[in-house]
């Protein structure tokens, strides 16, 4: 009888492993997040971009993308010494989401961009996760000139997440 119990345990273990492998293979085989693509989720709106340029300049990651409708995404993430944790104060992005130009910047990134006054929105976190450049925070609208819209704007701050995949990074300054 001990031999029969051992076989049943092994059989159960094998079934569990096979089930896990099937689950993982199904999850990984669905339409994945392809290289040189980016997704911006702003509230209930989602825009997909083709990444035109992405790379690392010193410790700063950059991403530039364009949607099929001509919407533009520009993002920067300053990396901490560990090479993967983003420095929120030195990270930020602008993204055309439908008719709105949304922005979220840390104070350092806003200043480096030449922004005046307080930065729009806030960056909750940013990071490099493998080939994925990610930023999350609250974004606020900018006008056509890239300036903050007055606080009485009809477009309130919105929760935004940026996720861009960049397997093959460009050299700084190349497209």
What does this entry look like structurally?
The chain has 175 residues and is an alpha+beta fold. The chain folds into two domains: 1-30; 37-171, no CATH class. The chain is 20% helix and 46% strand. The relative contact order is 0.18.
Radius of gyration: 21 Å
**How would you describe the shape?**
elongated
Helix content: 10-25%
Mean pLDDT figure: 83
The proportion of residues in beta strands is: over 45%
* Category by helix and strand content: alpha+beta
Order of helices and strands: HEEEEEEHEEEE
Q: Can you tell me the residue ranges where pLDDT is under 50 for at least 5 consecutive residues?
A: 20-31
Quickly count the helices. 2
Q: What is the domain tally?
A: 2
Biggest sheet strand order reads 1-2-3-4-5-6-8-9
Query: Mind summarizing the main beta sheet?
Result: 8 strands, antiparallel, barrel
């Amino acid at each position: 009888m001990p031999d029969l119990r051992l076989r049943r345990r092994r059989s159960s273990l094998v079934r569990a492993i096979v089930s896990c492998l099937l689950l993982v293979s199904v999850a990984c085989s669905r339409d994945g997040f392809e290289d040189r693509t980016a997704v911006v989720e702003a509230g209930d709106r989602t825009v997909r971009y083709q990444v035109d340029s992405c790379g690392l300049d010193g410790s700063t990651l950059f991403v530039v993308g364009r949607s099929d409708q001509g919407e533009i995404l520009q993002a920067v993430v300053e990396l901490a010494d560990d090479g993967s944790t983003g420095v929120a104060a030195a990270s930020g992005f602008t993204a055309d989401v439908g008719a709105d130009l949304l922005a979220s910047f840390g104070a350092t990134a806003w200043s480096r961009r030449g922004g005046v006054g307080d930065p729009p929105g806030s960056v909750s976190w940013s990071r490099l996760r493998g080939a994925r450049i990610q930023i999350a925070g609250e974004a606020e609208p900018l006008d056509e000139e890239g300036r903050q819209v007055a606080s009485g704007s009809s477009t309130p701050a919105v929760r935004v997440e940026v996720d861009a995949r960049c397997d093959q990074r460009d050299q700084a300054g190349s497209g």
